[in-house]
Structure formats: C-alpha cells, structure tokens
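Researcher: Quick sanity check before group meeting.
Model: Go ahead. Protein one:
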Amino acid sequence: MTIKIVTDSSVELTPAEIKQYDIHIVPLNITIDGQNYVDGRDITKAAFMPKMAAAKALPTTSQPAIGDFLTVYDKLGQTGDDILAIHMTEALSGTVNAARQAGVISTSNVTVVDSGSIDRGLAFQVLTAGKMIAEGAEMPAILKRLAAIKAHTKVYVAVSTLANLVKGGRVSRTVGLVSSLLNIKVVLELTSSGLDVVVKGRGQKTLTKFVDSQVTALSQMSDVAGVGIPYAGDKAFAEQIGRDIQAVLPDTPILVSPTSPIVATHTGPGAFAIIYYTDPE
C-alpha cells in the first residue's frame, strides 16, 4: 500500500514531474462565449490565450464537480492505497471544498489539503509530497512538511488590467475602476484571505521596479528552495525575470512557464507572477 497524489489543473507542473511522481490531476472547467471546455483536455495553454483575446466576453471558470473527484478517488483507492489530495487555495476557489465533500463520500481513505497557494506554489507542495512518498514517508510526516512549506511560500501576481479579476470577484470593483481609468498597474500578494494589493502605480515601470526589488530581496536570501515565474502572454518579459533571478540564485531551480488557462482567465493578458518558497527545515 502506498499514497497516491491528486491535485487540480491550476497547478503548474512539467510533464516529467507528473510522470515521475504519478500525479493525478482533476481538471477545472472554462467557459468562453457559452462554450464549455475541460482544462487540459479540450483546451491547451497555447490555444487559450488567443481564444480569450477573441472572446466577446471575459471567460469564466468553474470548479470540478464532486463526482469528478469521487471517480478519481474511488479508482485510485481500489488497491487499498491512501489518497493525498492537494488543491488550490480556498481563498480563490471552491475546488478544495468540493474535494473535501468527495473525500467524505469516497470508499477510499482520502486526506485533503488546502495548499493556500496556486500554480507553482501549489506545485511546491505536490512535488514535496511526491518525493517524500518515494522515500517511504508516512502521511503525518508529509502533512507536517506541507504545512511548513505553505507557511514559507510567497505568491506575488502582477497584472496589467484588473478587468478579469474584478469580474471574477477576486478584487473589488473600486480598485478595478481606478486601474482602468488611470492605467494603473497592480501587484497583488496571495494571502489566506485572498489577493491583497501591495504595489500600484502608472505604467510598466511600476512592474519593472517591483521585479527589481524582488530580485534584490531574493539575492539576500540563502534558503530559497524553488522559484516559479508563470506568465499569461508575455513570454519574453517572464524569461528575463527568470534570468535575473537565476543570476542571483544560481543553484535554485526556477521554472518559467505559461500559466494554466484557469489562472490566466482571472489574471488577464500580460500578467506574470513571482512565486517562491524558503526551506523551512
């Protein structure tokens, strides 16, 4: 008997990572102009951004149905394996609550974790769990380690327009109105209560200054265990951020990658994030 890992499609993992740790992903759903898509099955990262740009209305997302989780849990538990389900933060989605409800119903032994994060921040916990399972760790030790990583993870999201976040209810309409009228760029930090504005100013230089400040801050840390630079559209800028951070953290793994359609739906085009965690041990 072992432990099987389940997560959701807001996570940012490479195909190699998914294969290495046998990670099972339950997809969310996206609606674009009345057409429903299953994330990762009906629509890819590459196809999503052009579709969003051409859409008449802003896309919307919806969490997996309880039955979707239940099907995965019951199938994985048929051999007696335990299930560890690690999902995106409850502050942004009801996904983890649907997972909990399915876990109660399932015939398998399911433990559900709210990662308190999203994208590569969620991946940090998923990958750590995978490594620990491969080393023979048991559930209590894994859960303790995940809680420590959660407490030591930072997620900063920089957006060029707040229209998508406002419509999705992730930030207030007042902030969104000010942003659209004054060409204000905003950086938000993901906290236990949601997305909080930490930087705002006019023009792209606001975001450039924020990146510079983060590079400086990271250069002074000796315990950064991983960094993610997800982006929605502007690949060149994200790759430059990755190079700048790699220059000051040459031994730290850094993943620069397009974010999932689930995340891009809410951040809008031109967004990027700087996500990292420090080693709590």
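Researcher: Fine. The other one?
Model: Protein two, sequence then structure:
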Amino acid sequence: MGDSASARPSFTADPQDVYREFRAPLLVLALTTGTAGFVDAFAFLHYGAFVANQSGNAVLLGIGLAGRHAAWPESAASLVAFAVGTGVVSQVRAAAGRWSQSSRGLACAVLAMALWTVLNVLLDYGRQGGPARVGLAAAGGLAMGALATLFARTAGITTAVTYQSGTVAKLGERIGRWLLGPDTGRSRARQGTFLGLLALTCYAAGGGLGTVAQQQPLWVPAWGTLALASLSLLLRTGR
C-alpha cells in the first residue's frame, strides 16, 4: 500500500482516485468509511462476524476452528462473499460501457446493500441464528466487497474504505516522514496523515452510530443503502 510518487495533477487521469470520480471527495471518503464502520458494528453485534473488516473475520475464523467462537461460519461466509463481491464488481468496472467506472461500481454496491436490506427484514435480522445469520453475513460481505472497489486513492494517496489495518500502518509511516523525513516530502506526508486520520475517525464514528442503531436492527442496512445511494449526487459527469 504505497503512496503515489507522481505530482498532484496525475490523479485526474486515475479512475480509482476519488478526486477524479467525485465532487467533494473528502465528503465521499468520510461517508464511505463511516458507512463501513456503521454496518460493521451492526453485523458484529448481531451475527458475530464483520462484513467489512475481513482481517477480523480471518482471526475469528481461526478462533472458531479452535473451538472458541461459535459464529465462525458467519465469518467464513462474509469473507468469501466479500472476495466474490470485489472480484465481480472489479470486472464490471473494467468492462467497456457508456457509464463511468465509478457509476457502475457505485450502482453495484447500492444494489448489493439493497439486497442485504431486504434479506435482513425477511430473515428478521438473523435473530433466530443458524443459516439465516450465515446468509445475512454473506449478503453484508458481498455489499462491502462491492464498496471496496469504489476508489483506492485520494489525491494520489492510498486510502481504504472497508478495512483500516493498512490505514494505521501507513499513518505511522506518514507521521514519521512528516516529522523526520526530508523537507521535500513533508507536505505530502502531512496530507496523507490527515487523510488517514479522517478515514479512521469516520470508521470509528460509524461504528459508534451502528452500535446505537441496534435499537432498530431491521433498518440498519437500509440506512447504509441510503447513505451509499446519496453518493450518486456527487458523481462527476461529462468527463
């Protein structure tokens, strides 16, 4: 996960840079990471598995196979579905078409979130346990896998939507470069530090809101769907 070494104007030609694809790109970064944290908290508290944080699911899977986490099938289902969502939507984005890559990727993410919303209502947010929770964890993982393809960089700097382990690692590197590195790279490192802190703060804030929203568990994915659908208002057009 390295930062782009090119000058600032290069992201205008990068289809995976949020600055190229969206107006108000910092708002898009905040909204997507906040939504990921929001639904991750909901999924963990109701399914015993994450839908965005697949590093966490890998650990929970290992704990479950060692006999200490009964919800390991939910973690496995989410992990596999996340990979499927990322793989399928990446191909949808890469295919030729009249719509921009981000338009197609966002449409897939919204549709996957809408599917999760419907299943969450039909299966009563998995409170009966068993196959229902496994299916819902998979539906959430599919939606977050689609969302993970939306953008990979912000102003040429690597930023992640659905997982933040890499963000923490890069944040440490950027702070060190900002404080101790050569003068020529400090401005870029300072910008990267700000973006990392923004992503982490919004992901954590989303997790807090997702926890509070447990009082209305039937509608949490619906609120996430609305949040992602609102991004269509910020898509750049006419490029």
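Researcher: One line on it for the slide.
Model: The chain has a mean pLDDT of 92.
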